[in-house]
Design brief:
It is built from 13 helices and 31 strands.
């Protein structure tokens, strides 16, 4: 088995070099102990960079959420928080507008089913009061993105609110509370929210490609205390292995009880169904699905140019954690982390293809329509003869039924089948669908924009990727430098488009000049040319 993991080390090294990712770290857990740990590459490509080890710190982005969820569940067990009490009963200023808003609970926040909007901001205030202050400002008069309790919609804002509920109930600021409830009991000695603490240890740096394609360090470390509960932790693969050992042990760590088995089961159990072939769901602070017949519980995270993968197989007592310091489509972090479990558990190389069942054609008239989602773009569902069909940002995909309200189809280039789930209404047309687990809402498409307006959008927009926007034959197209391909766009209005990257929106100043491209509703790319 060690030999298998040694082969994985070689594969990771090769993929890092090919993708130009400077550094990464891996830890693998089995039966309550770390059985393999390795660092790859360097913390930074400039002088001063040192080799990455399993003790090197990385920002872990949204893999912070299981840490937040663990602290919250400890407070639930102490009786100071209630998963199902409406949030408005604890916070008199919390009054979002939307369907079911009055019933939003901590359980909904921890399972991304509250319907709150998503957001992301790498930089912001550093003071410990920033979390409450920012939430009050951002939620004032804010509407819901989706009806509360109806379906999954990933929301960093919701997790920040859960973290504030925890600090308010415990009477301690969030970072200090996590130190007391999670980091210290688990012996996570290097894990912190404070960059001034992290910088006293070997610390990986963020990287990007400059305009000439050269790899360089970004000399600004993302920091925003208002986002700590959703994605602010800095950790190592060995520290995160301790979290995995506790969860795999039913809440026990080194002989001490941190959580009850009932709390662990609740965190690892479906609270909201994402409607995919892999049975994806979200528990309490964890994403769930099946991989080659094995139940997977884990979380991914991205912050700045850091990427993290935290994956557990609870029934087999195994886990894999992979951290890296540059995000690129050319480095398949999730696939490599899953490969660690494949090798450790002797899983097959491939999964059997899904088997279609006879569809309920009588439901098709209610399912047909146009649907828009921030992660997905434009999904158009049509009945074509004896088949249901999906047109995904212009790409046509024939669908087969997998269950009463779940369909799948294959893209022309192959790869993993696309999952399409339908949420039936008590009466009338389907209002919401999911595409690969991401929600979309029925929409009426507006008229196409003025072609002259399109020319004002052309240019280069750069952040973690370089996006080149051009106009050809009256249509917008966006080339991703990272993915090495161009995506044709479908107009959804004057400054709104759908493509294979997701929903694309352009922001203009008072003078009408476009200064920013927003992707998926949250990722901002400033205009550079």
């Amino acid at each position: 088995m060690d030999g298998d993991l040694g082969e994985l080390d070689r594969r990771i090294t090769e993929r890092l070099e090919a993708a130009r990712v400077p550094g990464a770290a891996l830890a693998v857990v089995r039966d309550g102990r770390v059985v393999h740990a390795r660092g790859f590459g360097v913390t930074g490509v400039e002088p001063g960079g040192v080799p990455v080890t399993p003790e090197t710190l990385f920002r872990i982005g949204s893999t912070t959420k299981p840490l937040t969820g663990t602290a919250v569940m400890r407070l639930v067990e102490l009786g100071v928080l209630d998963l199902d009490r409406p949030v408005g009963e604890r916070l008199d200023w919390f009054a979002p507008v939307g369907e079911g808003a009055a019933g939003i609970s901590l359980r909904m926040l921890l399972s991304h089913s509250a319907g709150l909007p998503n957001e992301t901001a790498g930089f912001g205030p550093r003071d410990p009061e920033a979390l409450e202050r920012s939430l009050r400002a951002e939620l004032a008069g804010r509407g819901l993105a989706f009806p509360a309790g109806r379906l999954y919609y990933y929301s960093n804002l919701g997790f920040r609110l859960a973290g504030h509920l925890a600090e308010k109930a415990a009477g301690r600021h969030f970072a200090a509370l996590l130190q007391e409830l999670v980091f210290d009991p688990l012996g996570m000695g290097r894990t912190t929210f404070d960059p001034t603490v992290a910088m006293t240890y070997p610390l990986a740096q963020m990287h990007e490609l400059d305009a000439g394609g050269r790899l360089r360090v970004l000399h600004r470390f993302t920091e925003n205390a208002a986002r700590y509960p959703a994605g602010g932790a800095i950790s190592t693969v060995l520290d995160l292995a301790r979290l995995a050992i506790m969860h795999l042990g039913g809440g026990r760590f080194e002989g001490a009880r941190m959580l009850s088995p009932e709390s662990v089961r609740a965190m690892h159990s479906s609270q909201v169904d994402l409607r995919t072939l892999a049975g994806a769901a979200y528990g309490l602070a964890f994403r769930l699905e099946r991989h080659k017949g094995v139940r997977i519980v884990g979380h991914a995270g991205r912050q700045g140019t850091f990427d993290s993968r935290f994956i557990m197989a609870p029934d087999q007592g195994a886990a894999a954690i992979l951290l890296s310091n540059r995000i690129t489509a050319r480095f398949p972090a999730q696939a490599l982390a899953l490969e660690a479990l494949d090798r450790l558990l002797g899983l097959p190389e491939t999964e059997p293809p899904p088997r279609p069942v006879e569809p309920d054609r009588s439901a098709w008239p209610l399912a047909a329509g146009d649907f828009i989602g921030s992660e997905v773009g434009l999904a158009r569902v049509r009945a074509e003869g004896e088949r249901l069909a999906l047109e995904l940002n212009g790409e046509k995909i024939a669908l087969d039924a997998f269950g009463p309200d779940l369909y799948f189809g294959s893209r022309a280039g192959g790869g993993r089948p696309v999952s399409v789930g339908f949420l039936p209404e008590p009466a009338g047309p389907v209002r919401f669908i999911t595409v690969d687990g991401e929600p979309c809402e029925r929409a009426e498409l507006p008229a196409a924009p003025d072609p002259a307006r399109l020319e004002t959008l052309a240019g280069v927009y750069r952040d973690r990727d370089a996006l080149t926007v051009s106009v050809r034959e009256g249509r917008l197209a966006i080339r991703s430098e990272d993915q090495g391909r161009e995506f044709p766009c479908i107009a959804l209005g004057a400054g709104r488009f759908a493509c294979g990257l997701g929903l694309v929106e352009f922001d203009a100043g008072a003078d009408g000049r476009v200064f920013r491209l927003r992707l998926k509703g949250v990722l901002a790319f400033p205009r550079k040319g």
